[in-house]
Design a protein that fits this description.
This protein has 319 residues and is an alpha+beta fold. It is built from 6 helices and 19 strands.
Length: 319
């Protein structure tokens, strides 16, 4: 069994707990996840099973969330799981002012991760340092937020804002909630978080643990094919001869025009030459005859020569 599982992570358990439960349900040792979700967050958690764990590094990195931000409150963890640091009633705050402040968090921004996070500083996880009472300076990181859309706004003693956020890898939604409160001078924390998109997998297609167990009991569970999570990469189909060479871990010397790859293109002529790598590198899905997914290759261009180098040989051909 190999491929992906689009899991709808439940509230209150870690991503590691989810991996352990999938291992037990499927009776597999090789299980991993792509993109950690905090215990208090729900939604899409891509799970790889079998040899597909080797492909996790090649999944898309963009993500999307639905979040609820509560203003007037700050906490130690930047969400409601932490201890309350400050709490004060917020009155007279308009949605227009909130929307104007949100604009500061779109685009390429500098963000300081929460002190309770898995970021490593001085070789230790920040949450371990925080739990030990150690104070460290958390360096800011460059992240990209593609879009923030306001979904709902609820007035009250502690106003709440529902937003949809599309962002790149490494973005902390808790930090956006915290920093929005700083900009508005009200304080802010994350009240709820649901991931709606991760690594190309959508919440609408996800399955809960209950649904997964039912499918397993009924014998209807089939993992998502391993190459389905890699559709953002262009592809090349090799001839039978070249596919055998490539699966043996050898480089292919390509004469074809390889700039824009589409489905079912064929390259040929293997050669033993090994030109030095250059900055022009393209990752490709590699297929053999019969649309058989063989793995991930890297196309390296050097002047008028192109080399297709195996990165992950996922499947081998019968000899």
């Amino acid at each position: 069994m190999q491929g992906f599982l689009n899991l709808n992570k439940p509230f209150g358990i870690t991503s590691h707990d989810c991996v352990a439960k999938v291992r037990r349900l499927l009776r597999l040792k090789r299980v991993g996840h792509g993109g950690t979700l905090d215990p208090a967050a729900t939604g899409v958690l891509p799970i790889a099973v079998g040899k597909a764990t080797r492909l996790l590094q090649y999944l898309r990195t963009d993500k999307a969330y639905r979040a609820t931000i509560r203003l007037g409150v700050t906490t130690t963890t930047d969400d409601l799981e932490g201890e309350i640091i400050t709490s004060r009633s917020v009155t007279g705050l308009s949605l227009d002012r909130v929307k104007a402040a949100l604009g500061q968090f779109e685009g390429i921004i500098q963000q300081v991760p929460p002190i309770y996070s898995a970021i490593q500083v001085q070789g230790k996880r920040l949450y371990d340092l925080a739990r030990a009472g150690e104070t460290v300076e958390v360096p800011a990181r460059t992240v990209e937020v593609y879009r923030i859309e306001v979904l709902d706004w609820r007035l009250g003693e502690f106003p709440e804002l529902d937003v949809a956020i599309a962002c790149g890898s490494g973005t902390y939604i808790r930090a956006i909630a915290r920093d929005l409160g700083v900009v508005l001078q009200t304080g802010g924390t994350l009240a709820a978080l649901e991931r709606t998109l991760s690594s190309g997998f959508n919440l609408s297609d996800s399955v809960t643990f209950d649904q997964l167990e039912t499918q397993i009991d009924q014998g209807t569970f089939h993992p998502i094919p391993p190459d389905q999570g890699l559709k953002h990469l262009a592809s090349v189909t090799l001839s039978a001869k070249d596919a055998q060479v490539w699966c043996n871990g050898q480089r292919l010397f390509c004469h074809d025009e390889m700039g824009n790859k589409t489905e079912n293109q064929t390259i040929s002529q293997s050669a033993p030459t090994n030109p030095p790598p250059t900055p022009a590198k393209i990752l490709l899905r590699i297929y053999g005859e019969g649309e058989r997914f063989l793995g991930i290759g890297q196309l390296i261009e050097q002047q008028d020569r192109k080399m297709l180098i195996p990165q992950i040989v996922f499947d081998s051909l019968p000899s």
